[in-house]
Design goal:
7 helices; DUF6062; mainly alpha; DUF6062 family protein
Amino acid sequence: MYFEMIENFKEDRCIVCHLKNRAMDKFFDDFLYESVNDYSLRDRIRKGGICPGHARKLESFGDVLAHAIIYSDLLRSFKNNHHIEILPRKKKAQGQNICVFCEKEQSFEDTYTRAFSYFFATSPQFKSAFAKC
């Protein structure tokens, strides 16, 4: 992660946001092509829904078959449970699940923020590379 950060330092760009967004793009891509049939992940999506922002991002990847699988699963769950709690939501309310993608995005952001803080505090070379960008 150290070298990944140094290699991606650019002026006027937040390194944490850049790496988080890149990791999220890979997560979406992996999800659509490898994990859309993962029962445990789809169960988490059924319980937490997909927030509007991540639904749009997921749509931008253009895999219509994967979308059909996900949304038919959500609609079937909605029909069978006769309640509205599986509709998209962004924030975790008391007793509710959260969008899987929001959770993953927060995890990436936390990881990169902690790594940046650690490298900045402990590595003069890292601090120097950051100062040059």
